Amino acid sequence: MSYPENLQYPEARYHGNNGEVNAVFRPADTPPDISSPGGSTHYLATSAETGGEFGLYKAELGPRSAGAKAHFHKTISESFYVLSGELELYNGEKWLTGRAGDFLYVPVGGLHAFKNVTDEPVSMLMLFSPGAPREEYFEQVAEMAQRGAEELMRFRVRHDSYFVEDFE
Q1: Is residue 7 part of a domain?
Q2: DSSP 84-149
Q3: Structure letter (DSSP) for residue 58
Q4: Residue 113 falls inside a structural domain
Q5: What are the two backbone dihedrals, phi and then psi, of residue 153, each rounded to the nearest 5 degrees?
Q6: pLDDT per residue over 121-145, tens digit each?
């Protein structure tokens, strides 16, 4: 594989000479941060914890979970890595079946969606870059959906989620 000659590392952000003790460990048996009948979400690394570099979440969707309808983001990219089960992923053009080890990268502005159409649970990692405060979105989207279309739309826009209403 060849690499572009202009590819460079970012500017240094750490200027010390000896390194620091600042790693964060999250044991596998840490309970989910959000649980609902449809699944759960683990906050592996929030934007606040990574200084805005990225946000990493483990999502577990129950059988026949609706997931997220077609949408895009104006400020962040989103990536999906399937850990277990089968996850239907929309890549902006068609639905693909993601299985353990499959990966989908969605650049800024890319249409995407996901859902579990099987009778088995599915587990995945979701990576947002740069980091964004997605926790409030995950925690309140169901409540906002019950409040009505106008309030839900304002909530989604505040969280950089632009849904395509006339999809499927």
Answers
A1: no
A2: ESEEEEE-SSSEEEEETT-EEEE-TT--EEEE--SSS-EEEEEEEES---HHHHHHHHHHHHHH-H
A3: E
A4: yes
A5: -60, -45
A6: 999 999 999 999 999 999 998 888 8
